[in-house]
Write a structure and sequence with these properties.
This protein is mainly beta. The chain contains one helix and ten strands; from the N terminus they run βββββαβββββ. An eight-stranded antiparallel beta sheet has the order 1-2-3-9-8-7-6-10, with helices on one face. Strands 4-5 form a two-stranded antiparallel sheet.
Amino acid sequence: MLGERHESRFETGIRLTYGKLDNGLVELGFSSELTELTFQGHPLFLEPSKKIFKVMIELDGAPYELLGFIILLNLGITMTGFHDDDEEDKAVTVFARGRWDEKLKKMNRFEF
């Protein structure tokens, strides 16, 4: 978003986003190069895309979609590249509470 500061650590596959108001961390992104990334014991980038995606959808219970991102508001996670098997663009972010609130009206409920 406008006015935010981004920091990329390409060697690790991590991207940090700092907010424009207090400069605090609002989002932490992970690329598929970070193969050891797990959530509740599930390896996000090593499991087959559709399998781990289904697990995450079920854990969240109310997924949304916007601009190709699946937003799991209850978990505080976004995923991209998993639902359409786009191996090159698979990425996961964790975000601060309220980060997507102003875009909620533009989101569509996601269903398989």
